């Protein structure tokens, strides 16, 4: 595989007008969603695609000044310089070339993630096989191409709003409904109770990263009480209840017996494995877009096998990221469930009220056609590589705009 060109395109999908979402003690402002489309082309003209642009709860681009624009520059400069003209015998060779650069570790990880996915797309096209078949050979397992999805929606609304949204998700056939609480302890408790009452077939999950962004607004005792209440009410999991690096906080909450989830904010594949091996999480959430691609997720998946930890990929971006993670789920043993983020006007969910979190038109427009989703299940494409067609018109239609995609503004500032 001889690399001819490596290109990164920073894209922005505007949220117009800007949306303000009230949470306990502040307001979250939503300006846009950013994506970096990475395109790799070989000497014979085969192209591979991937998306980058971490939207994890750690939000590095907001807290540390990075942006998707600067990452696209990294791809077009340092990464292109390191890879163009190189001949790769194995996909894994790309990681060594990127690690030989002087980039900071977190940018190396993001770049390896995108390149690993794009090169698997190329290799699948060269061999005429979907990525899940290539991966299944590595995992020595038979692929499963019908994948149940849980809907990732609900952000800072009144308890009844969450319940109404969850009912729509259940009617659409999804395995689960994940939402973002943080409206205050009493409101969060009431939401759990309404969901437990309203849902009959669909599980519910809490993504509570806002709690630790509140600082001491809730406090450790309140968080523990809310986690226990959610578990007692039948929550399938409680996600990121403490800061990602707070291993002791995870351990203390795990002692309650509550099913905890985490991993999307882990900075490396090694730290992802480490979290899974603490015994504190029941669900480990790696992501091919953030944990060095299909290759990087392999150790975490292997570490979960035969243990009471289920690998469930994090996925919170465009349909390209959805399909990439779907190939991983299809191929990997003991992995069965995938996150489906729901944005406004989702063409696959025609329902009222609209269960989408906010507009993210680029999420859909980046593909020609639509994923095969029916009754809350995804059929993984069986075409070569990722099995999708990227609409390159989005490069012109969604120009990048500077500035943070989201901001947390606190009432006491």
Could you characterize the architecture of this molecule?
The chain is an alpha/beta fold. The chain has 2 domains: 3-128 and 394-410, Enolase-like, domain 1; 134-379, Alpha-Beta Barrel (TIM Barrel), CATH 3.20.20. It has 15 helices and 14 strands. Strands 4, 5, 6, 7, 8, 9, 10, 11, 12 and 13 form a 10-stranded mixed sheet that branches. Strands 1, 2, 3 and 14 form a 4-stranded antiparallel sheet that branches. Strand 9, helix 12 (293-304) and strand 10 (310-311) form a beta-alpha-beta unit. Helix 11 (269-276) packs parallel to helix 12. The protein is globular, with a radius of gyration of 20 Å. The mean pLDDT is 94. InterPro entries: DgoD-like, Enolase-like_C_sf, Enolase-like_N, Enolase_C-like, Mandelate_racemase_C, Mandelate_racemase_N_dom. It comes from Natronolimnobius baerhuensis. This is Mandelate racemase.
């Amino acid at each position: 595989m001889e690399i001819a060109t490596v290109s990164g395109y920073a894209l922005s999908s505007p949220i117009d007008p800007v949306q303000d979402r009230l949470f306990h003690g502040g307001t979250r402002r939503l300006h846009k969603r950013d994506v970096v489309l990475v395109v790799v082309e070989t000497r014979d003209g085969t192209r591979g695609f991937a998306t980058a642009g971490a939207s994890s709860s750690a939000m590095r681009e907001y807290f540390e000044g990075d942006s998707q624009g600067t990452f696209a520059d990294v791809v077009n400069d340092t990464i292109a310089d390191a890879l163009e003209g190189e001949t790769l015998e194995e996909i894994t060779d790309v990681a060594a070339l990127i690690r030989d650069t002087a980039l900071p570790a977190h940018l190396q990880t993001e770049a390896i993630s995108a390149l690993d996915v794009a090169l698997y797309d190329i290799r699948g096209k060269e061999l005429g096989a979907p990525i899940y078949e290539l991966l299944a050979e590595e995992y020595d397992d038979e692929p499963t191409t019908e994948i149940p999805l849980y809907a990732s929606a609900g952000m800072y609304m009144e308890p009844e709003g969450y319940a109404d949204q969850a009912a729509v998700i259940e009617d659409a056939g999804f395995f689960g409904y994940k939402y973002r609480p943080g409206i205050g302890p009493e409101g969060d408790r009431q939401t759990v109770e309404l969901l437990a009452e309203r849902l009959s077939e669909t599980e519910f999950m809490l993504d509570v990263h806002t709690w630790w962004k509140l600082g001491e607004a809730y406090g450790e005792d309140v968080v523990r009480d809310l986690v226990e209440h959610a578990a007692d009410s039948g929550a399938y999991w409680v996600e990121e209840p403490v800061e990602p690096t707070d291993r002791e906080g995870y351990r203390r909450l795990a002692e309650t017996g509550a099913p905890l989830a985490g991993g999307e904010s882990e900075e490396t594949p090694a730290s992802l494995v480490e979290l899974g091996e603490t015994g504190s999480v029941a669900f480990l959430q790696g992501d091919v877009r953030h944990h060095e691609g299909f290759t990087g997720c392999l150790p975490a998946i292997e570490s979960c096998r035969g243990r009471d930890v289920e690998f469930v990929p994090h996925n919170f971006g465009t349909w390209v990221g959805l399909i990439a993670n779907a190939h991983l789920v299809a191929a990997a043993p003991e992995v069965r469930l995938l996150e489906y983020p729901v944005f406004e006007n989702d063409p696959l969910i025609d329902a009222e009220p609209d269960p989408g979190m906010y507009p993210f038109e680029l999420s859909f427009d980046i593909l020609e056609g639509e994923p095969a989703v029916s009754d809350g299940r995804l059929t993984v494409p069986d075409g070569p590589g990722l099995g999708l067609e990227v609409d390159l018109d989005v490069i012109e239609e969604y120009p990048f705009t500077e500035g943070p995609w989201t901001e947390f503004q606190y009432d006491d500032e």
